[in-house]
Specification:
Blueprint (H helix, E strand, L loop, with lengths): L4 E6 L8 E6 L8 E10 L2 H7 L16 E9 L11 E5 L13 E3 L2 E3 L10 E5 L3 E3 L15 H12 L8 E4 L3 H12 L5 E5 L2 H9 L4 E4 L3 H10 L5 E6 L4 H9 L1 E9 L21 E4 L7 H13 L9 E6 L3 H9 L6 E5 L2
Parallel strand pairs: 10-11, 10-13, 11-12, 13-14, 14-15, 16-17
Antiparallel strand pairs: 1-2, 3-4, 3-8, 3-17, 4-5, 5-9, 6-7
Helix pairs in contact: 2-3
The structure holds zinc ion (ZN).
Length: 349
């Protein structure tokens, strides 16, 4: 391969800062693999979860991270037909059509460094063909990473899991990068009112900008009751949880109407179970979990790019902070503390 080494942010141990270091790329691309020069990557809340070991023991340490990026294709392996050198691409975690290649064989400090079919916290990455979707040459590379997860998951949950209809009342718990796109998607679909809650005040201000009708702090029970009264809502048609917090999941389910739907998007920490009274599920109420909003990248990314270009989707204001790869740990700390009210972008060029 034309590139031998690259700079990457590596997760060596759970609950510790990422290590920024030079890693060695494989000598050759395998079947279906693509070498990408990454320009930008955004940081998704699920990477915070990965670093803190939310799903339990991590057998893949040390490993690479990141699942929403933008870049330019440098080289393609055997069998690749969906992208070619020079193409600008969105890097996404949901598989699209194209080959599902095996993960890249990186080495770091003389030992194997694990990675998945896609990682984006590095200057170059070897990515599976089915994690890349070409974008127009004139498309903003800073905006493009958002199509890797934040936008596609957010809008996908509204469209596919929640199936929001005109006039539906919607409540969204958690207004991070994905939640803010859900708000936009719900508003676009004709939902009213759209209520957003978060534990961080700054995020609520952003939620308001994205079109939320009412924004409330997560513990403001009185405010929620008042809003429900104001809009004559006994139960919500759609309640979406982005937090993974058992108490919030129970609350979301509790205020879903007898014919409504609770959608779980946030991933609970292993062992954090929720107790639910299930009788209403026999009579029309439903609860479902989402896996990336049921996104079909090759279909949805071009559609959402059209909406963005038409000014129907506000993404410019979603990127609130930009960091160099070397400063990724500062970005992660700010996200943990809730100091970031939109998406953090990593700049690799
Ligand atoms: Zn994500």
């Amino acid at each position: 391969m034309q590139v031998k080494t690259t700079k990457a942010a590596i997760l060596k141990e759970l609950n510790s800062p990422l290590i920024i270091d030079e890693i060695t790329l494989p000598e050759n691309l395998a079947y279906g693999q693509v070498l990408v020069r990454i320009h930008y990557s955004s940081i998704c809340g699920s990477q915070l979860g990965e670093i803190s070991g939310v799903k339990g023991h991590d057998p893949y340490l040390p490993h690479m991270l990141g699942h929403e990026g933008s870049g330019v294709v440098l080289e393609v392996g055997e069998g690749v037909s969906m992208v070619k050198p020079g193409d600008r691409v969105v890097m996404h975690w949901k598989p699209s059509n194209g080959i599902n290649a095996k993960p890249a064989n990186y080495t770091w400090r003389g030992a194997k460094l694990n990675s998945g079919q896609i990682t984006t916290f590095s200057e170059h990455a070897v990515v599976s063909e089915n994690r890349l979707t070409p974008i127009p040459d004139d498309f903003d590379m800073k905006i493009a990473p958002l199509f890797g997860c934040a936008v596609t998951t957010g809008l996908g949950v509204i469209k596919n899991d929640a199936q929001v209809k005109i006039g539906d009342s919607v409540i969204i718990f958690g207004a991070g990068g994905v939640g803010l796109n859900m708000i936009q998607g719900a508003v676009m679909s004709g939902a009213y009112p759209v209520i957003a809650t978060d534990i961080h005040k700054n995020r609520l201000e952003m939620a308001k900008k994205m079109g939320a009708t009412v924004c409330l702090l997560a513990d403001d029970k009185e405010g929620l009751e008042a809003a429900m009264k104001q809009y004559s809502i006994k139960g919500f048609d759609i309640a979406i949880d982005n937090t993974g917090n058992p108490a919030v999941i129970a609350q979301a389910y509790g205020i879903t109407s007898p014919e409504g739907r609770t959608v779980l998007v946030g991933v609970p920490k292993k062992g954090n179970n929720t107790e639910l009274y299930t009788l209403p599920l026999h009579f029309g109420k439903s609860i479902t979990g989402s896996h990336g909003g049921g996104t079909i990248p090759q279909k949805d990314i071009p559609a959402y790019i059209r909406l963005y270009k038409a000014g129907r989707l506000d993404l410019d204001r979603l990127i609130t902070h930009t960091f160099k790869l070397d400063d990724i740990n500062t970005a992660l700390d700010m996200m943990r503390k809730g100091e970031t009210d939109g998406r953090c972008l990593l700049e690799m060029i």
